[in-house]
Write a structure and sequence with these properties.
By secondary structure, the protein is α/β, with parallel strands linked by helices. The chain has a single domain (about 15-245), classed as Vaccinia Virus protein VP39 (Rossmann fold). The protein has nine helices and eight strands. It has helices at about 20-35, 50-60, 70-80, 115-125, 140, 160-170, 185-190, 195-205, 215-220; strands at about 40-45, 60-65, 85, 100-105, 125-135, 175-180, 225-230, 240-245. An eight-stranded mixed beta sheet has the order 3-2-1-4-5-8-6-7.
Length: about 250
């Protein structure tokens, strides 16, 4: 057994009750692709704690992952032996041309300084006909009315049109645009907590206030299935796109 990674604010990790909403909001993306990529060669670009790469490996994918943080790399190697873990920079991926069937990049591109270069690297390592699955916070709802991200770890957040354009410029064709939304139970929690379940968590955390018992219990009980993944809309919480490299 290895020690858990610390919660830094830059990545989400499993097993922390107060972080559970954000963890489950990330987890829904991996659940959506687990069966889709079973039996394929998958590269996860920016794997963080590694739980997602491990989910894909457990579902039958051959998974190689990469992260820039050496502590995360060491953690993944110790905690998830079915994942081949690399240390490196997403702007220069240490993989051969046309070497993977799929690339997974969830909640990472908003952290990168050179987003176009990263996507060019994704296109380079994908086999003809290979697919990128990518998610990122929707700037329209995550940092509304701002060009500068609210999250200090984000360099540039994107809306649907901006992400589409970046993928096109990298030579990738968007085949499906989805978005992450609150399902019925989370919509009810929005109403219970003054109109926004998210704001109820953030405002108290920023103020250094203890959470009310009901808020703590509600956050700890969130499941990935409480989120809906459906056709992309301007007000989605996160963007979730599939994009393909053209066949040779």
């Amino acid at each position: 057994m290895c020690d858990p990674l610390p919660l830094t604010g830059e990545r989400t990790v499993p097993g922390i009750p107060e972080e559970n909403y954000w963890f489950r909001r990330h987890e829904i993306a991996y659940l959506a692709i687990a069966d889709r990529y079973a039996g394929t060669t998958v590269f996860e670009a920016g794997s963080g704690e590694g739980y997602g790469a491990a989910m894909l490996a457990e579902a039958g994918a051959r998974v190689t992952a990469l992260d820039y943080d050496e502590s995360a790399v060491a953690h993944v190697r110790a905690a998830y032996p079915d994942v081949t873990m690399l240390h490196g920079n997403l702007a220069e991926l240490p993989l051969e041309d046309a070497s993977v069937d799929a690339v997974v990049n969830f909640q990472v591109i908003e952290h990168l300084w050179d987003q176009p270069q990263f996507l060019r690297e994704v296109a380079r390592i994908l086999r003809p006909g290979g697919e990128l699955a990518i998610s990122t916070p929707n700037r329209v709802t995550f940092s509304p009315g701002r060009d500068t991200p609210l999250n200090p770890f984000h360099t540039r957040e994107l809306n649907s049109a901006e992400l589409t354009e970046l993928l096109k410029d990298a030579g990738l064709t968007v085949t499906e645009k989805l978005g992450v939304f609150h399902g019925p139970r989370l919509a009810e929690l929005d109403r219970t907590h003054g109109g926004s379940f998210i704001d109820a968590q953030i405002e108290r955390s920023l103020a250094g206030e203890p959470w009310p018992e009901q808020l703590s219990n509600d956050v700890a009980a969130v499941a990935a299935t409480d989120f809906d993944l459906r056709a992309d809309a301007p007000d989605s919480l996160d963007l979730f796109f599939y994009a393909k490299k053209p066949d040779a």
